[in-house]
Amino acid sequence: MALVSLSKILTKALNGRYGIGHFDVHNLEWMQAVLNAAKEERSPVILGVTEDAVSYFGGFSVPVKLAEALIKEMKLGVPVVVHLDHGSSVENCIKAIDAGFTSVMIDASHHPLDENIRQTKEVVTYARKYGVTVEAEVGSVGGSEGSDKVTDPVYADPIECIDLVKRTQVDCLAPALGSVHGIYRGAPKLDFEGMKEISQLTKVPLVLHGSSGLSADHIKRTIALGTAKINVNADNHLSFSKAVRNCLENDKGLYDASVYGSLGREQLKETIRIKMRLFGSVGKAIE
Ligand SMILES: [Zn+2]
């Protein structure tokens, strides 16, 4: 099965009231862990690739080709999306689309609304020609992404959300509603009322950034209120790093990277499988 567009699986998820996991990938082992989890749980899945990860992989085409090769070798048989996470410019979204990404996020949310709309519209126009899905953001997710400094969340305004969706025809929307990238400082304060209103006004699938550290109840509530794509990164880093750290601390003489690499990969896969069960995407890979 070739890579699919995000819209193809996201509309079904919204209608069926389940969430599809977007798992950021940073190298071969992470990609294998995500794809193996998807295979075992018969779940559709989104491989998230940030611009930092694009640099780490060595270019936009590398994660696409790697995903395609693994899907073929693993005889995967579940829908897979390769998605640009937090695309910082129209140019980078175009580069990703040209390299074969099947979904891109244009994150122009730090600009005034009109500029956010202008950039989002430009990406949507280009993406349409290739059947690629586009995600936009309104407001600001708190915490830190990569090397960014830590910031407080800025809650999305429902009126701005409907304005952006109408004027850009974007496929899905990440309204920042109190979630935080990385580790939460204090208890999360999600605006569920705002989420409900934005979902009803825009009618597009919503995206939750910063799901790590939220409770199972939080996650289930966001899905019930119209969230269909759930981004996971920090919890996966914690899981992978803990397994590798334990392994190396328990065997000081160990130097074979494939030993601790595969242990980390296995633990990561199990963490992702638990997420898929929580999101309700298990068994949804069937056409
Ligand atoms: Zn994010």
TrEMBL record:
Q: What's its top-level EC category?
A: lyase
**EC?**
4.1.2.13
Highest rank taxon of the organism: Bacteria
Transmembrane ranges, per UniProt, are none
Which coenzyme or cofactor does it need?
A: Zn(2+)
Q: Which organism is it from?
A: Thalassobacillus hwangdonensis
Organism lineage:
Bacteria, Bacillati, Bacillota, Bacilli, Bacillales
User: Per UniProt, what is one Pfam family of this protein?
Assistant: F_bP_aldolase
Q: Its Gene Ontology molecular function terms?
A: fructose-bisphosphate aldolase activity
* Identification of the protein by name: Class II fructose-1,6-bisphosphate aldolase
What keywords are annotated for this sequence in UniProt?
A: Lyase, Metal-binding, Zinc
Gene that this polypeptide is encoded by = fba
